[in-house]
Amino acid sequence: MTPYGPTSLTTERLLLRPVQEADVPAMARLWTDVEVRRYLGGPLGEDVVRVRGAWCLGAVGLFAVARRADGVVLGSVFVDPGGREGRTEISYQLLPEWWGRGYAGEAVGAVVGRALAEVPGGVVAVTQAADVRSRRLLERLGAVPVDRFVEWDSAQVMYRFDG
Questions:
Q1: Is the pLDDT reported for residue 120 higher than 80?
Q2: What is the pTM for the complete model shown?
Q3: Segment holding 90, helix H or strand E
């Protein structure tokens, strides 16, 4: 089993699992919400959302983040084994109503922990330098900044997790 294969992870409060048909509306909200997309290039257009809606069903490496208590989908975590210069890259999004409750840290921490245990070469995450909340989350989880660069006309910071 790999951290990005068709598997599920369970934490104290969350179930991270492959995306199902019933999750597509929540995924579409992630891709179109102005706040979620503030540091991700802005909301996606209808055509892109439609294509992603079909792609996300069972997509390798994409986890729906759902509360264990009631199955409500809070967001997603994506693991890309060749994401950055051949290193495993983690990305994540949570709907704004779930921010500030520790869910992102719980979800990302679980996925990073699994990836570090199973994938050589460490794990990276990239966020805009201006995205202070995301940077704090990564640092709380033990990631350290290893590179700064400009991409998509914005200053970016690459973080690395080491086992």
A1: no
A2: 0.91
A3: strand 87-94
